[in-house]
Amino acid sequence: MSDFEPVIGLEVHAELLTSSKMFCGCEVVDSTSAEPNTAVCEICTGMPGTLPVINKRAVEFALRVALALNCEISETSVFARKNYFYPDLPKGFQISQYELPLARSGWIKVETEQGIKDVRIRRVHLEEDTGKLSHRPDFSLIDYNRSGVPLLEIVSEPDLHSLEEVRSYATSLRSLLRYLEVNSGDMEKGVIRFEANVSVRPAGSEALGIRTEIKNLNSFRAMIRALEYEVKRQSQVIEQGGQVLQETVGWDEDLGVTVSQRGKEEAHDYRYFPEPDLPPLHLDRTWIEDIRAALPELPIDKKKRFTTDYNLSPYTASVLTSEHIVADYFEKSIQAAPTISPSKIANWLSSDFFGLLNEEGITIDQSKIVPENFAELVTLVESGEINASSGKTVLVQMFRSGETASFIVEKRGLKQISDPEILRDVVKQILNEHPDQVVQYIEGKRSINQWFFGQAMRATGGKADPSLLRTILNEALQKLDEESPQP
User: pTM above 0.85?
Assistant: First the structure.
């Protein structure tokens, strides 16, 4: 397998977050939870005599993506009928785009272990989603709620040559769609789906091998496992003197294998022809430029700025910019705590706060802690008002109640003890109460120093300034050393 190089291109299908469907006024609902076949009408179920109308908002969302992907925008594009029979396709054809798509010839920068890589985008076009089949032992059920939902297809060139590059491209694209607020990225609900075209060739060769298409990969894990299996399978076929067939395969998650479904279709198999009920889509250049001007800062640019402006490590910057709601939260926290190093805020955010979010299974915008209150907590810790241990306790209470850090500190009496005289009395008391341990220290058991420190912290209820307490403890123990009789 090491003698072969994979050549992979991805087709990404992303449902757009519009209120209504692509060609009718039906509401877009959550197809995983809504009552089946309740958000349907004559148009999206393909009834005779109905006429589709293009959803302008869907076109705007598609343009956001195409512009962010540096594509050439077609001021005139055409919808076509893609003809094939399947039970979840009520009209017997899908309205899509073929010869004249909305956009083409773009690129996206993705981060790989070898550095930044440009992945070329062949085309970006609009179409409608299909219905949803649920299979039973003796029959199948069809829910048409999803039928007609605006679907954006993003097709890459075969520029991906490792599983690591595939994962980086797919996660980067998902992050981009979420930044643009055109797709939720919720793969469990099927709102973003992958199809992979994969072939292998001898390492160093520029020729393209015969490819297979892997359909409907609905998670990053499934995509990587399917590609890993298919690359290995194709390599073994060639090594054994066989020939890879051009076909469409499905991924069997339970068996961990790809399964042949049908011979690979070509464009003529779908009998594309212009949709007679829709005129060509003409876009005003001013509108396109207005959409371009309104694009947000994109993830890779934001990460670069975070490393430069806030002196964050590339890894931390990547974590904080993977989701725009996290990046926004971080910057609002910085603005609310101008005297605190951004790296301190980043550390608290990406460790303890993220841990609580993961445990609860919620996103940061669903948390009860607003950025200003989070910034106050970090300020209390970094200014010495409370120690780090108390800070973690306060964070948990804030997460549960939504109360401010200062209120919790006052209510629970957590203000840090930084008075040297108080801490000297605590240390003196600990040493007086544990004479046996003092003898062990004097006799050379230096590791017991940490035990004394723990006892002193416990005596202060964890509120002592750790650095100051350790200094005072070390001074007291050094004095014992100096006063003890020498052998």
Answer: no
